[in-house]
Amino acid sequence: MVWEVSYICKRTVVSTKAVEPRKYFPLSVLDRHMENNHIKMVYYYQTSGEVELGEVTKKLRETLSEMLTHFPIVTGRLMRNERGHWKIKCNDAGVRVVEAKAKGSVEGWLTNLHREKELQLVHWEDMYHKPYYWSTFYVQLTEFEEGGLAIGLSCVHLLADLTCAALFMKAWAEVSMGNKMVIPPLFHPLPPPRPRNRNPNNQPHMELIHHYKSLIEKPISMNEARYTTISLGFSDSMVQACMSMAQPKGPITPFEVLAALFWVSLSKVKGLKNGLIDMSICLDMRKVLGLDLGFFGNCMVYNKVHVEGNNCKFSQAVSAISNVVAKMDTEGVMDLIEWLENSDVSSPTLMNGHNLVCVSSEGVNPYLDLFQDWFKPIHVSYYMEPVLGEGQVLILPGSPGEGPLSRVAMLTLKEEEAIKLCEDDLLSQFSTTILMKSQ
């Protein structure tokens, strides 16, 4: 069967209540550093076969308008302040919504999924020369003619990280169900520098600063390599087996063992017989900084992972990642934020432009986002674009039916490396489920 998506219309959806006039939101230094990136998400839902085509889209459009009342930063537009930094002017400009339909059923669509096909379900437009008229968020609602719906969400990373985007979807689902938002968005600055950081004799934690400084100073090679995305499912038992193989000396997380698994496997795929390729991890620092989960803005921080010597054993890779995660504490992150505020960075870099980047997105569970009792998510995909350099690994929660430790790994790699990775001996031990294959 030939799968097709037909675009019906694009419209603007505004909030049901006007925002406070002359209200602005300044963007933080962590926000500004992600200006060149954007996020894409696709949520797949089963729907009742009795629902008339177009009816679901209409209801979702209405509840989106109601929900946007709580997200004035999303419906506003970008402007520069007197220092040339971005800020949001709240002006009820709204969110662009694309309505579409697809042939077949959502279950049939998912049986033969690949990147190019999936990205038909999420609309995105790059910023043009007049950012004040540019929508920073886009929603695409695609109904399947034989049942099912896909909700595609995209946004500029300048305003939101993966946690924000996922909580945006969660809030929409809760409003659609007539419920109160469990985690309402909070719009406030990052924590201010601590008094001790103003002491001239204080020595800042330099590990994060050195990593960011090296990436800012290193030119990005805009190679013409063809990248593809594959998605692999790990059941609860698979993750437990992976954790047992790591032989940990202390507590470890599913993210740490899966990041190590791909670090070792991809190093072999890339031809390294000794040692490991350069890798960075990306973690949500809300808890570390004492921020509520509803904090709306960028709170993802990157750090380099090191392994001593040329040994690339799996257990050593896990320990190296676990040690770096433990060191990403409040003082280190605050020192990084202060350094970024005081450094003269002319333009933001692409944090995923060099090393292999492994991103944890385990803090939210998209499978809880029910829009109706009969309207349940069956699959979710996340993207952080663009991807350059060695590639990217996103670790997401797995579907509830696979157990509490289940995870999904979405890998965007050079095409030939993605194919080889699926044949890797270490990875094949865990009998992963291929949810999305390279085309």
Automatic annotation (TrEMBL):
Entry's Gene Ontology molecular function annotations: acyltransferase activity, transferring groups other than amino-acyl groups
Signal peptide range: none
InterPro entries: CAT-like_dom_sf (IPR023213), Plant_Fungal_Acyltransferase (IPR050317)
Membrane-crossing residue ranges in chain numbering: none
Gene3D superfamilies according to UniProt: Chloramphenicol acetyltransferase-like domain (3.30.559.10)
Pfam families: Transferase
Protein family membership: Belongs to the plant acyltransferase family.
PANTHER family assigned: HXXXD-TYPE ACYL-TRANSFERASE FAMILY PROTEIN, TRICHOTHECENE 3-O-ACETYLTRANSFERASE
Listed name of the protein: Uncharacterized protein
UniProt source species: Psophocarpus tetragonolobus (Winged bean)
